[in-house]
TrEMBL record:
Residues 869-1217 form the AMP-dependent synthetase/ligase domain. This is Amino acid adenylation domain-containing protein. Pathway: Siderophore biosynthesis. Residues 1278-1354 form the AMP-binding enzyme C-terminal domain. InterPro entries: AMP-bd_C, AMP-bd_C_sf, AMP-binding_CS, AMP-dep_synth/lig_dom, ANL_N_sf, CAT-like_dom_sf, Condensation_dom. Keywords: Ligase. Residues 2-323 form the Condensation domain. The lineage of its organism: Bacteria, Pseudomonadati, Pseudomonadota, Alphaproteobacteria, Rhodobacterales. SUPFAM superfamilies: Acetyl-CoA synthetase-like, CoA-dependent acyltransferases.
Amino acid sequence: MYDLTPMQAASWVNGHAGGQGAQGPSAHLYVELDRTGRALDPDRLERAIAALIARHANLRLAVTADGTARILPQRPGPFLDRHDLSRLGALDCQLALERIRADQSHQRLALERGEAVAFSLSLLPGGGSRLHVDLDMIAADPSCFPDLMEDLARLYEDGPGFALPEAGDFAAHLEARRSDPDGPARAAAARAWWQERIAALPAAPDLPRPPGRREDAPRTARLAERLDPARTRGLMRRAREMRVTPTALTLALFAQELARACDQPALRLTVPMFHRPEGETAIIGDFSDFALLGVAGAEPDLAALARRVQADLAGAITHSAHPGPGQMRDLARHLGHVPEAPVVFTAGFDHPRGSILSDRARRCLGDLVWSVSQGPGVALDAQIARLGEGLLVNWDIRLDLIEQDWITRLFNTFIDRLHALADAPSAPESWPLSPLQRAYLAGREEVLPLGGVAMHEARLFRGRLDEAALGARLQALCDAHPALRLRIDAEAGRQYLARHPKLPLVTHDLRAAPDAEARLQAVWQDFARSPCPLDGPLWQVCALPTPEGQEDALAVKFDGLGLDGPAIAQICAELFATDPPSANTPAATRLHVPPPVPAGERAADAAYWAEALARVESAPRLPWRRPPDRPGPARYRRSSRILSPELIRPLRRTAAREGLFLNTALGFAILEVLARFTPDLRICAGLPTAPALDREDLGNRASFIVIDHDATSGTPRERAAALQAQTMAGLGHMGFSGVDLARQLMGQTGGPLALPVVLTNGLDWQGAPAGAPMRQVDGLTQTPQVALDIRLMRAPGGGIEIAADHAEDILAPATVTAMLEAALRALESMAETGALSLPDPLVAVDLPPDRPHVADPAPHLVRIAEALNHAQGPALICGEESLDYPALRDRVATALAGLAAEGIGPGEVLALHLPRGIDHVVLQLAAALAGIVWVPVDAAAPPARREYLLDRAAPALVVSEEELPGRSCLRPGDLPRPGGALPDAAMLRLRSLDTGPGYYLFTSGTTGAPKCVVLSNRATANVLDQTLSAWKPGPEDVLISVTPLHHDMSLFDIFGGLAAGASVVLPAAGHEKDAVEWARLVARHRVTLWVSVPAIVDMLLACARPGQIDSLRLIAQGGDYIKPATLAELRRLCPAARLISLGGPTETTIWSIWHEIGSEIASAADDMTAGGTAPVPYGRPLDGAGYRICNPLGEPCPPGVTGRIHTMGDCLSLGYLEPGGLSQDGFVTLPDPDGTPRRAFRTGDLGQWSPDRPGQILFAGRVGGYVKVRGVRVSLGEIEATLADHPALSQAMVVDLAPGDGRETTLAALYAARDGQPPGIAELRAWLRGRLPQSHLPDRFLAVAALPLSSNGKPDRGAARALALSPAAPCSDRLGREVLDIYLRQTGPDPEATIDSPLIELGLLPEHLIPVAAALNARFGTALRPSRLIPARTARQAAQLIPPRPDPEDLR
């Protein structure tokens, strides 16, 4: 007794137990074997059958009504039914045989009585016989049939006493399998695997029903065809060529035809499997199982579909511990009903006996003439199996379930395709793709940065086209060069040579076109950019005959999969040569494949490159229009310049004098120029290489080396010599290939793009022959993951063409033109001077016009005095205290008298150590009007800092509410005296326009000790004059001053507001940082103008209630990054308000650059899903301020290139007050465009000239905003800006944490939520991952109520570092290991791999990302795009892309 297997139980329930009705079929196999000439001896046969049943216990299997299985003892017989038809006529015999066939095809054996098999013998006229065998498949599955027939033949021939090998025990086999200790774990894992796939299974085939009413009884028929041995061998050969099993091939073919017939793109099929013990044929039982397989039958590529089917079959076999009936139950639960499984595909190619019937069985028992099986619910069981040296295709069909004509047509179509497949000529020899070819193929995928393009070179020729000779010349080329016959099997990763390829020639006849030239250019532009399809030739030719009198055109292009640059040049030369190329004889069957590099040599070269490129931290940071590491294709174009042939000889002599090759001099000039287009004057570029051209064996043998060129090291001569030495050394270490180098750099820089810049030297390539009928007039090369390819080529007439093939949406054409112009000037300079002298500047930059020096501005002190004397409205409002202009004038007058009484006069220094309030404003006004140098000191500063500030300013008097021992100090209430008066207008004009010290301001000191900046009244008057003219405040306006009064922006609040006669509102004491109170004040006083740093605006927006701030007509922000989300909110709340961005450090007086923010910036801020930001331009300088952006050598930066901002002109402060006098630290000398040296301030800000809006500066961070994290230079400002763009955040700050104990620097992000509900860390990580390189992701995240601010209202990074104490949550090792296993399925097993192993070192290639993403999505239910995996350098980092799920233990 034993428990039924799942398959046995399903067959019993759905068959014998009546699951399909009383007349429903049971799972059984009925076979007929015909023996001609001499009939089987019935008695002898019956004895053999009895011995067979006695030998195999499962042939005596009995199953009770409740499904209990037991083995019965041998029954006495009879064991053979006999039908003597020998005396019947032919027709009667045929009818009798058909009745027997019909009965036994549909019979249900009495398995409950132990009748698991039935034999009958028909004796036929003429002496032959037919053996009828009916086998219940609960007792023995079809895989047992060949063994049973072999045993029966032996027992018949040799007698029942013949000593056959001992038969195995099926019950014992089951017991051993079920007692396997690893079985439950395998079953659980298999079930989990299947459950992840069940939902994705397509529907079962929708088979057409026969017309008329449904029949109650099954009606089974058979369609069969034999393939002869020759066709069988042909089919096996085709499977080998496709590198799939015959089962996968025939199943794919069957699915294609069935899907077409059912008009379904994909189908769910039932595929039986037989888990017989390997090498064991003596056990008879039910080893069967099945798998549910989804097949995309609409896939037209049979080879691709067969490979997919093979992979799916392998997965199903690997996870067969979850049986087919279990899969059906899982599917039923998913669908909510019992699913159908009407179509079964059974293959029997790999039975140990090699055939359904062995030679002995066929000789002894007869040849197979009929075979039919039935199964519950099965409408079509399509079988294909070995029979002798051929194949038997046998379809068992239920005509009560399928329309007969339809299934017959399908069968015939399937057979025809099998014949065609078997008869097809053998495929040519193939060999694997090289690493470079695989990289080019991967580059065609749009998921990669700068992907979605083919690596190919296109050339356009003009001249006289000989159409008649063109085809013959192309054929001669194809015959001479096997590489032109190369084909790529991308799915298989292999290549081969086509035997008789069709010439890839098309003709666009433009001879009758009135717009022939325009149409020709349109054809060329499309031709040059479209790839050669992978299912055809890897080169294409387009002939364009034109009208009489115009030059014809011929366009050619070659894919780099087949030919490298030198080979392409030779093909083009031979295309126009006088003599045709000679054909290779005999025809090649494959191209030359170089031998692998010895392991020792490769390791040594890898070590060389690791050291040579150790300083490379990132891909070149050229002025990209959009980040080149974002996925997606680009459009390429060519720009070029010609170096005159007259300059080549002197340039060669110049190079020789320096011990350089001409190629080195050319490359040096270009690399020097390219370096000027990077912020760090450093360029890392690829240099393609190819071995010496072999005329007889063209192909793509290219690789490349890498040059790391630093334009800041040494002299030009030293840099040029270093370039040549670096190039020669690189050529000596090419055992580490270019693909290896790219992977190394990707791992080293942490980015998905390694070498977007390439310098190609084609000067040694073969040129056009003399007298050629056509000349090259244009060309274009595009390479995946390359944004700029500068190519040196021989130009017609003997010059050198410097061509730049570039992605125009990545690198602006104007930028490329500037590069080429600069390179040409550099080469001309070297040729003309005879030395390696570079023009100064190397890159000519057209600086925008500015006015760093202006005529005297309107005197602001005069305007303030006029307002004090004549205005009548409110002047100052602070809490409940309010002063109108007359009252303010009186207060200022008494202060002037008090200062005079204290002996504080013009040029003396007065320190204001007061909180924000009316007293502070009155004294500030009085000091300015009196010509006293005033300096505000933060009243909230700690004592030590206060003393430092006062010591540095050295005031004659301090006004403070505190006692300051050792200082000459007065309280504000003790200073006023009666009798004071405002100075006259003439004196105030002189003081307004004085260029000497007017007041001091201290810098914030967040990056070091505060500096005392000495500022002039004239510079202040200039800023106020221009601002008042632009903003036009008047007496009807109300300003609120929320900026601390020791901050330079507050000068406009006080001086600008009062000069305009407006009202100035000050928050009362204790409410200086109370944003709720600010909003109340704005609403209460209907404030119209707001000026502050962005952080204070964010605080206002976070606290304002609807309608409170809608009175604002102008909002100006400066001193920090303005978030697009803030602009969007301001546009929503104050749609009519003008939004202004202000810039410039304290050293350049209040602000020196500004930008009015248009609706396009604010509306762009609304789109937070695009992945980028809507950056607010830094703006344009005010008159009186000149701006320069310089690289580390002090040279002007071209547009789009980030450099250090320098400011010059009237706006500049006088310097820093030091104990010994004025210090000029940070002030430098720069030349004007006319060469005149000018004093300039080197700011701590980085910026770039806008490449799209001349004269406008874009802010790019701060000099101190870059830190090194894990060897990569990271911009903190860039991370902050990206994080701040998250719609749920109001503020964000990123700080570096350097532990100082040798451990690496890490990053911490602090953030405040807009609505008090911060998003999760996983969400923020995902937000940043989609927008920044992996190297820029913070290690720690900390939610805070508000960012810590300095006394000036700017972010306080020191305080932020103190807050960043929370450790990062550890990654689950279990999840990381699951992710690692998915990667290893693509890269190959590695027992040493851990979740922190670099994936690139494990062998990860770009083409692996698509299957990895698919596997992750299937396993974890995610929707990851392959591009999301690009930044993940380890399995741990990839695992962080997967949202957390509850642990199974938590669910119990």
